[in-house]
Design brief:
By secondary structure, this protein is mainly alpha-helical. The protein folds into two domains: 64 residues, Orthogonal Bundle (434 Repressor (Amino-terminal Domain)); 44 residues. The chain is built from six helices and no strands. Helix 2 crosses helix 3. The protein is rod-shaped, with a radius of gyration of 29 Å.
Amino acid sequence: MHTDNGESFIPKLFGKNVQKYRKKAGLTQEQLSIKLQISQKHMSIIETGTQFASAPLIGKIAEVLEVSPAMLFGGYEHEVNYEQANATALLLEQFIQSQMRVLNSRLDKIEAKLNLLASDAEVN
């Protein structure tokens, strides 16, 4: 993947995500660079996507920011709002039950009509 000017998209995406999670953690570039034992300039060029981080540094960044390495590459966040998920599941279950009642009612009507037709056919 490349940007319009031919640069690789992945270092840019990685840098933006590092910046996002750094800010979410309430850290400045300087504070993060100190924790990572790298220069602030190095931190800056990683965040701008000018230079890509080494594999060991990627691991350290993820550890310090308390995220998975996949999240730094744009992976899905594994934060789940269980209250919202449970409410959604309950609404879905209620919807399915109401649709099943409607379906059963229609099937009962069809069965009654078929029984009536069968009775009429026996009479004739």
